[in-house]
Amino acid sequence: MAKDIKGDTLKAGKVGTLQVVTNLKKLPRAAATYSHVRVQHPNGKIDNLLLTDHELARALRRGDKNPEDIPEVSWLRSMIDGVRFDFNAGK
């Protein structure tokens, strides 16, 4: 179960929406597009993240390799976020 820096159990926050955006001032060796997600820190500060395909793939692999560090999603959080359940999965 995921813990914060104080050692308290974390529950998952809201689902973010990943958007593909065009790099409008692309340098010759730069990525043509980025994956954008807007995040809110625990202190309320909002930031915009721009990730290359490589950075996104690396972050996804880290999540796959460390599932114990991912906050648990409650059924209520899933309902609020509009995540659809497949109740027949695994049957």
Helicity level? 10-25%
The biggest sheet amounts to: 3 strands, antiparallel
**Largest sheet, spatial ordering of strands:** 1-2-3
The fraction of residues assigned to DSSP E strands is: 15-25%
What radius of gyration results from the CA coordinates? 16 Å
In terms of quaternary structure, the protein is single chain
* Tally of separate domains: 1
Mean pLDDT: 87
- Order of H and E elements: EEEHH
Low-confidence stretches: none
Beta strand count: 3
Write structural notes for this entry.
- The chain has two helices and three strands.
- It is α+β, with helices and mostly antiparallel strands.
- The protein has one domain.
- The longest helix is centred in the middle third of the chain and has 13 residues.
- The chain has a three-stranded antiparallel β-sheet.
Please describe the structure with a list of short key phrases separated by commas or semicolons.
three-stranded antiparallel beta sheet; 3 strands; 22% helix; alpha+beta
Helix-strand layout with pairing:
Elements: E1 19-22, E2 33-40, E3 46-51, H1 53-65, H2 75-81
Antiparallel strand pairs: 1-2, 2-3
Concise structural overview:
The protein has 91 residues and is an alpha+beta fold.
